[in-house]
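Students often ask why we bother encoding 3D structure as a string. The short answer is that it lets us treat folding as translation between two languages. Here is a chain of 153 residues written in the first language.
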Amino acid sequence: MTASNLYLIRHAKAGERLHDSKDDQDRSLSAKGKLQAEMIAQHLGNRPINFLWASPYARAIETLTPLSTVSQKKIMIDRRIGEDASIKELDTFIEEVIHLEGEHAICSHGNIIPLILRLLERYSPDSIRCAKGSIYRVDLSKLEVEYLEFKVV
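And here it is in the second language, the structure alphabet:
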């Protein structure tokens, strides 16, 4: 493994699901979600992040947008970390990421972050929390995970 830190970010709070024809993939962040995204950018903005990856869902991209602005790094969209990604797709993605130099941030979904953690074999499924607007920092050299949650009331 080469990466020093991997930040696993669950997308921030999105607006309500609508019962119309609008694709859920296009659902944007709520006002609280936008604040969470700003808080995430403030927290990670001084880190030397090399790459930003997001699920193709609007709420994941919008969660990383403030961090992209602060870090001056382009957001790379990857369907392998989308809400409907398979274990095989996730495993292939993670295998590529852990061999890259430096620090990286991944923004995905509540069903995907725990799978990534399981693929990294860090925690048992019973100990995984994954609130909206949260970050996992995975230190790959020490096999340690730090969990941070940004709540907006």
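Translate back mentally: Strands lie at 5-10, 49-54, 75-77, 103-108, 134-139, 144-149. Keep this in mind for the problem set.
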